[in-house]
Write a structure and sequence with these properties.
Layout lengths: L1 H5 L3 H4 L20 E4 L13 E4 L9 E5 L3 E10 L2 E9 L2 E5 L3 E4 L2 E4 L3 H10 L4 H15 L1 H53 L12 H28 L1 H20 L6 H24 L3 E3 L5 E3 L2 E3 L5 E3 L2 H37 L8 H12 L1 H28 L4 H39 L3 H14 L1 H35 L1 H10 L12 H35 L12 H7 L12
Length: about 600
């Protein structure tokens, strides 16, 4: 409330006129919030100093405005008084009453609607920089090809399901092929090392060391590869159950995604919720920033051979305002992390209700969001608070490390070492808590407990099944990276080929007259970028849901909920399963 009362968003968004006043903010132009570019000679290229503040954007030539002419420096020497002389240096611009041109308001600026050359001049020579022009052209090209982009989205979804189908049928074979390939590679390295140790002419170390040293290195490598092979064999035998659980979890994840396709809507719903939350807080943050005092500081601008200050301004804050800004940033991070936790819980809740309780729900993701908000919001807020605090601390340490990276001397070196160690510790703790949270929300969905109790359960289960946990996490991360790369990369490549290939256009016209007109665009790169964003977003959506589903099913398998075979479970698992025997502790609505 204080920010909306004392602040003014126009300080951050409105442009400067040729005198350095902020349109709609400074007293001289408080009633003229829009920036309109004009000069006394329209053939002259526009620059940053050619804007004037207007109350509304001109719509035709019937109105006229006082437009500045070319900037000319002047120097005026005053009289010498008491051996002192005053010299005045400045800029002179003649104002001319000129007929306006048709414009349209956009983002607080008046852009021409009929004069494309003038529009190009504004984009090229004013503070509407070149990247804005490129973004405008790219967006324009993407909008022109909206039908093609819809087709790209459909094809990307098809590629995603095809990837899950391949994973469903061939994941087990792929795992066993990788295990055998690693065994074969280690045995081959052992054979090559022994062969090099027995025959000097085949010793690949001979080019880098003397014959005795090369022989020693070869035998040393042979011993090392044998040791690694032995450890790998022992680990493979010890991890047989972990490998089986990993394969079952991945297959079950594919089955769940095929049986509950509405799970794939979660990323879209989550993105809309997170984006709405973030934009709302950013809007409030802009109001908070606008309470600061605008000062005419910063780099000066050179125009007409002289330096002009005051066109670039900085915002000065009091100590209380800085505290409010820090508080708002912390709240934004905390709430965004809580929303992310709610999204994870919604997926886990849907998977648990489908796979553990065998309940069929209409749009189970929405049920998950409702259960999270109504019954577990405090638990999710605790998880978001922990991750948010760790991220903020890591960011602050990274900024401090960046500031002291150029300092020389013993003191600077000590500060860098301390900051680096602290940063690595905090980053490691953040990753650890993120891994724990992946399963905490599953335990909350299963047992309807608080955050601390769920975290304790997760740690006990993970500690009693370390091989399984590591195997599933490694395979899930690998599949996630492979899926995003395959789905996003293939979709983007196909999009570019279709857009840029005239042969494909001719084939489309041969099948259906005028079909290639759907691909018409003024900016192929812009449309390709838009298609790539769609493809990678769909790929990330598939893999994010797959990742959380795999983790949820793994946890359910580890505590025996899905199989229901208590004879094969540990005492810790039976203890965790006991609250579930009487039915679901979750609200079924």
């Amino acid at each position: 409330c204080q920010a909306t009362r004392d602040g003014n968003l126009a300080k951050l968004t409105h442009g400067f006129d040729w005198k350095g006043d902020i349109c709609g903010v400074d007293n001289n132009v408080a009633d003229r919030p829009l920036l309109f570019w004009c000069t006394s000679d329209l053939d002259q290229e526009l620059s940053l100093l050619d804007g004037i503040c207007v109350s509304k954007c001109p719509t035709g030539e019937e109105s006229r405005s006082w437009c500045p002419g070319e900037a000319k420096p002047f120097r005026q020497n005053g009289p010498v008084i008491d051996e002192q002389q005053q010299v005045m240096i400045g800029m002179v611009r003649n104002l001319t009453l000129v007929s306006n041109y048709p414009t349209r308001e956009a983002l607080g600026y008046c852009f021409p609607t009929q004069n494309s050359a003038l529009m190009k001049s504004i984009l090229d020579n004013t503070h509407v920089a070149s990247w804005t022009k490129q973004a405008y052209l790219a967006c324009h090209g993407a909008v022109e090809s909206w039908r093609f982009l819809i087709g790209v989205g459909v094809v990307s979804v098809g590629i995603g399901y095809l990837f899950l189908l391949v994973l469903w049928y061939f994941f087990a074979k792929l795992i066993y092929i990788l295990l055998v390939a690693v065994h074969a590679l280690l045995l081959f390295l052992t054979y090559a090392s022994v062969n090099a140790g027995l025959h000097e002419d085949r010793n690949f170390f001979a080019s880098y060391a003397s014959p005795p040293t090369a022989r020693t290195l070869a035998w040393g490598m042979a011993v090392l590869t044998v040791a690694v092979w032995a450890l790998y064999t022992i680990a493979s035998c010890y991890s047989r159950n972990a490998i089986n659980v990993t394969i079952d979890s991945v297959k079950a994840s594919c089955e769940v995604l095929a049986a509950v396709p509405s799970l794939l809507l979660q990323p879209l719903l989550h993105s809309a919720l997170l984006l709405t939350t973030l934009l709302s807080f950013l809007y409030g943050f802009a109001w908070l920033l606008s309470t600061g005092e605008v000062l005419p500081e910063g780099d000066s601008l050179r125009e007409g051979g002289i330096q002009i200050s005051g066109l670039r301004r900085e915002i000065d804050f009091t100590s209380r305002q800085w505290a409010e800004i820090c508080y708002w940033i912390f709240g934004t991070v905390w709430l965004c992390e809580t929303v992310s936790a709610l999204g994870q819980f919604a997926i886990s809740h849907a998977v648990v209700m489908h796979s553990c309780y065998k309940e069929k729900q209409w749009l189970p993701v929405l049920h998950g969001y409702a259960a999270g908000v109504i019954y577990h919001l405090g638990t999710l807020a605790v998880g978001g608070f922990i991750i948010g605090c760790l991220k903020i601390v890591a960011t602050v340490l990274a900024l401090i490390l960046r500031q002291v990276s150029d300092q020389n001397g013993v003191q600077g070196a000590v500060v860098r070492v301390i900051c680096c160690c602290c940063l690595q510790c905090v980053s490691c703790l953040e990753q650890l808590m993120t891994m724990v949270n992946d399963l905490v929300y599953t335990d909350v969905a299963l047992r309807s407990v608080g955050y601390l109790e769920a975290a304790d359960n997760v740690v006990r289960i993970a500690a009693s099944n370390p091989a399984t946990y590591v195997a599933i996490r490694g395979s899930a991360v690998a599949v996630r990276v492979l899926g995003v790369t395959a789905i996003g990369g293939l979709g983007t490549l196909l999009s570019y080929k279709v857009l840029s290939s005239t042969h494909i256009h001719q084939e489309l016209d041969g099948v259906f007259a005028g079909a290639s007109s759907m691909l018409a665009t003024s900016n192929i790169i812009g449309t390709t970028i838009a298609a790539g964003l769609i493809c990678f977003y769909i790929a990330i959506s598939f893999m994010m849901v797959f990742y959380q589903t795999t983790y949820t099913l793994m946890y359910c398998m580890l505590i025996g909920v899905i199989q229901g075979e208590e004879g094969d479970t540990s005492p810790q698992q039976r203890e965790l399963m006991s609250p579930l025997k009487g039915g679901s502790p979750l609200p079924r609505g």
